[in-house]
Design a protein that fits this description.
5 strands; 60s Ribosomal Protein L30, Chain: A; 354 residues
Length: 354
């Protein structure tokens, strides 16, 4: 065993010696390394070319940027110039407008001055004619013509008399106006008193709707419903209406300065055969009713016939719609219209006209 180990160790030493003395063969190069190196070289060349091209493009970009900056500067200059030109144009237009306005004003002033000159020229012509007449009159006076002086004195005297007559007329009209104002005030008070008196005397009739009182300026109107005075389609007075007419007459007689105009108003033409035979139109029926009322006031109530006037309005002055029964009832009425005698009386009107 020990010998075997020695032998083995000796063998190993021999092998190691052999290995140390024998030279190692040179390693063989991998062909892929050369291929890779070629590709690296090609890529490096491409990178170099690209870097050179990029440098050229950077230079071009810088040149283009410089040109762009220059163009931008030129655009800014042109924009500033355009704004300056626009401002100048706007200022010029404004100035033109002001000049045009001044021109228009000057033309208007010229037209006004021309019109004024024409007016002054016409006045001057009139004054010149008057001056010529005055010079002629002065020459006539200087000539010592007694006839001319006498004519002037007579004309002056006539003018003075005319002036005095006009002043008298003015004074007379002033007195008349004052009298009329006083009369108007008195008339106003009288009418107010009459209205109050009528409303008090006929309160029941007013409440029933048989009578109403209206006033227009200085005219007083007392309207009485036809059914309160007459039967249907008839001009004959109801016996029960006598008291109403007597009370009305007392009011009328207390106003002798007023005419009482009795107006018969109807709605439509009478419908009964008897009424149609006697009163063929509503106007005839209204006239008969007004006449009977006037006759009663004169004969039974003692009113002055010169204070009474009877007339008919027929259906032609309605107060309401004639197509309805309610409207017809309002239209069938007798109106007592109190008018100042000075306005109504023909003789008084004649005096006023003169």
């Amino acid at each position: 065993m020990k010998a075997a180990r020695v032998a083995l160790a000796f063998g190993c030493v021999l092998v190691l010696a052999a290995c140390a003395t024998q030279p190692k063969p040179p390693p063989q190069e991998d062909p892929r390394i050369g291929q890779l190196q070629g590709r690296v070289d090609a890529l490096q060349k491409q990178v170099a070319d690209l870097q050179k091209e990029a440098g050229d493009k950077d230079a071009t970009i810088k040149q283009l940027q410089a040109k762009a900056d220059d163009l931008q500067s030129q655009v800014a200059d042109l924009t500033a110039q355009k704004k300056a030109d626009d401002d100048q144009i706007a200022a010029a237009n404004e100035r033109i407008g002001k000049i045009q306005a001044e021109l228009d004003g000057a033309q208007q002033d010229d037209a006004a001055k021309i019109a004024e000159l024409n007016t002054l020229g016409a006045k001057l012509a009139v004054l010149q004619k008057a001056s010529d007449r005055l010079l002629t009159d002065i020459d006539a006076l200087r000539s010592g013509s007694s006839n001319t002086q006498a004519d002037y004195l007579a004309e002056i005297d006539s003018l003075n008399k005319g002036k005095a007559a006009l002043q008298d007329r003015i004074d007379d009209l002033t007195r008349q106006d004052a009298a009329l104002q006083i009369a108007a005030q008195e008339n106003e008070k009288d009418l107010e008193a009459r209205v109050a008196q009528l409303k008090s005397l006929f309160a029941n009739e007013i409440a029933r709707g048989d009578l109403d009182i209206r006033r227009f300026r200085d005219v007083l109107i007392v309207s009485v419903k036809d059914s309160a005075l007459f039967p249907p389609d008839s001009p004959k007075l109801r016996p029960e209406t006598m008291n109403l007419l007597k009370r009305l007459s007392e009011v009328f007689k207390s106003a002798p300065d007023r005419i009482v105009r009795i107006e018969g108003n109807t709605a439509v033409a009478a419908s009964s055969p008897e009424s149609l035979r006697l009163y063929p139109t509503s106007w005839h029926l209204g006239a008969a009713r007004a006449a009977n009322v006037a006759q009663y006031l004169q004969e039974k109530c003692g009113m002055d016939p010169r204070q009474l006037v009877a007339t008919s309005m027929g259906e032609f002055r309605p107060r309401a719609d004639n197509s309805t029964e309610a409207g017809k009832a309002q239209n069938r009425r007798v109106d007592f219209v109190l008018i100042a005698r000075s306005v109504y009386d023909i003789d008084q009107l004649k005096t006023v006209v003169q």
